[in-house]
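In this supplementary section we document a worked example of the pipeline. Step one takes a protein sequence of length 282 as its only input; no multiple sequence alignment statistics are reported here. Step two produces a three-dimensional model, which step three serialises into structure tokens for compact storage. The input and output of this example are shown verbatim.
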Amino acid sequence: MHPFDDAGPDMFLQVMLLANESRFSIYLLDYDWRSTLHPRQQSLILFDDSASMVNAVWSGKSDSGVYERFLLLDKSTLKARFNKHRGACVAVSGFFVDQTPVLPQLSGTLHGTVDPKLIAFYEQLRQRRGSTKLDIATQLLQSAPDLLSETACSLGLFLYTVAAECSFSTYSLSHPVIQRLNAFNDASEVLEWLTAMHEVEHSQLLWYYLGAASIFEKVKNMPAAKVNDTIFKLAIMCGNHNLYPIQRICFNFLNNSKQDKAIEMAEHLKSNAPIYFKINSP
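The serialised model returned by step three reads:
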């Protein structure tokens, strides 16, 4: 504990960044002093590896929690100074570094009808960086009703999803994605969208889990051969270790189907899977 003054001690944090464009987020929560006469007061100053100031923010009262987010270009190292000010001490509940999504050429396998200007927005998203990219994503999201319409199909949903990715809004904008997935006619449409999202580098894992849940719900009404093929394709996309639960569910589904072709697919997954998959497999 320290006096309620501006004399510190302050907290210093150094972070190595992963790419030429990174998203740095901190979460502040005044969980212990918020109801007292001296709620936590602190500010944050960001410096690059040359000690030049990048940005600064004041978070005086973070009673129920607040995120501060920064988009950083061409920075390999970030140094953060959290200033105590007149609270009892500095507290940082979490910090996160994300790479911004790298968008591929628009997939020709996506189907649907959208305004050509929205396709143009996507091409601009691919080419721009920093705040300009954020502005374009915001403009694209303003057309959400069109992108999420029945006629826009997987193409519209893909454009909406990447705009959410590029605007720091993955989780807050995920509910319309769930609604649209539920409205798709069959699992092949969901797989079409998820395959396109799979081509987006550094996309959030959330989309895989939402897509997988929708696929397993919709395959109930598909012919057995098409079901197995769909589940197998889903499993192949989920080779990343963070997606192991999905791949293991796919393996169990195919392996327990009692169909020769499906069991063969399951054996293929098992033989090409990482060691942690093999250890627990029957």
